[in-house]
Amino acid sequence: SLQKIDESRVFAIQKQSIEPDNVQTSVVYWEKMSPVKYKASVSGGENGYFLVFLETYSPDWEISSNDITGKPVHFTANGFANGWYVPGGKNVQEITIYYKPQRYFVFGSIFSLTTIAFSLSYFFLKRHEK
Question: What is the DSSP letter of 7?
């Protein structure tokens, strides 16, 4: 079971004795799409599992998937990394790990380039009118 200790991001995991026949193993395949986006394929995770992403912890990292039945719990793993408890779902799950602030950067870049293009167009049109 996973229990929250206090208002910080500290969680305690209570292990129960597990018979060797009941041990669930999950296999994770991942692919780096960009520095801010990763795709993972998890097989054998239908009963829930811990997913640890070895990138410096930030609450802005998020995971999404249509194959997960509940809301993942995000926490600090190993004192520095991003960790999620994924409640499970389909036998094979496709998960996307994404850094949310990248959306603002992309929007700002598009807005800036559009503004520069319109400004230069206006400048050259006014210059040729004279």
Answer: S
Average confidence (pLDDT) over 25-37: 86
Write out the DSSP string of 34-96: ETTEEEEEEES-TT-EEEEEEEE--TTEEEE-SSBSSPPEEEEETTTEEEEEE--BSSEEEEE
Q: What are the structure tokens assigned to 87, written together? A: 């409640």
Q: Is the pTM of this model over 0.70?
A: no
Q: What are the helix (H) ranges across the chain?
A: 102-129
How many C-beta neighbours within 10 Å does residue 85 have?
19
Do residues 75 and 63 lie in contact, with contact meaning Cβ atoms separated by under 8 Å?
Answer: no
